[in-house]
Structures are given as structure tokens and as C-alpha cells.
């Protein structure tokens, strides 16, 4: 009987260490999930900022007079290099692509002016970039119609 007194203490210590390791693992997993949820929230907020900036930029299409029919979209919009205008929720660039009579989702033969808008969220940690092409009819210059939309993924 005297030899078994230390065994109970040893078994309790081993069980305590195992429970502590299990608790530490659960805490680590909870911390990781909290960080992931925070990152998803930041990305969703940045996406909403970029969408709001895109809509804000569509209101200034009538002020972009210089045509740029062979313009490429900004090469690295995540870095905000080049000429960008500041919006309430982000940055935007508007390009006047010129007149066409063959715009998608528009009546064939009706001349419309096309504009490309690139919008970037103001949030630098989870930056989002959206591009859209708008068609503006001479009959309804105050009602631009979005005919194309894309979400640009960050390269590299």
C-alpha cells in the first residue's frame, strides 16, 4: 500500500498536463478562427467600399470628355499608381472608351458612349478592385447602364 501513494499523484499530474495541452490547442484554434473571421469581415467591407466607389464614379461620367479608345485598364490598381481620383470610400479611375453602336445589352444601332471605371477600396489591408463598363445613351445621359462588371484579383 505504501508504494501506491506516489502513483496517484503521478497520474493526476499526467492528466493535468494532457488537459492543459488540450485547452491550449482549443484556444489556439479559437484564436485562428477569430482571425479568419476578422479577415473575411475586412474583405467584405473593402468589397462594399469598392462597389460604393464604383457607383460614385458613375455619377461623374459626363465630366470625362477626353476619349481613349485604345486604353488598357490600370496595370496594377492595387498599388494605386498613376492618376486616381479620391472618392468618399476609395479611389477611382474613369476612361472614356468612345462611341459604339454594338454595346452589349443595348439596342443594336443605337450609338452609346462607353466608359471604363476602375474602383479601389480605401482599406489598404484587404484592398479590393472592381471594374465596370458603363454605356451612356445620348437620349438618357443621366442614366448610365452597367453592361460589364468584373472583380480583379491581386496578382502575385
Describe this entry's structure for a reader.
35% of the residues lie in helices and 29% in strands. With 156 residues, the protein is of the alpha+beta class. A hairpin with a 2-residue loop joins strand 4 (129-137) and strand 5. The model has no long low-confidence stretch (mean pLDDT 87).
Detail the topology: elements first, then pairings.
Elements: H1 5-58, E1 85-86, E2 90-100, E3 112-121, E4 129-137, E5 140-152
Antiparallel strand pairs: 1-2, 2-3, 3-4, 4-5
What CATH calls the topology is Pantoate--beta-alanine Ligase, Chain: A,domain 2
Subunit arrangement of the protein: single chain
What is the H-and-E element order? HEEEEE
Could you say how many structural domains there are in total?
1
Indicate the CATH class: Alpha Beta
Largest sheet: 5 strands, antiparallel
Report strand order across the widest sheet. 1-2-3-4-5
Radius of gyration: 28 Å
Whole-Å distance between the termini? 68 Å
What is the helical fraction, as a range of percent? 25-40%
Specify the overall morphology: rod-shaped
The portion of residues forming beta strands comes to 25-35%
**Number of extended strands:** 5
The residue-averaged pLDDT reads 87
- Secondary-structure-based class equals alpha+beta
Low-confidence stretches: none
Query: What's the architecture, going by CATH?
Result: 2-Layer Sandwich
Total DSSP helices: 1
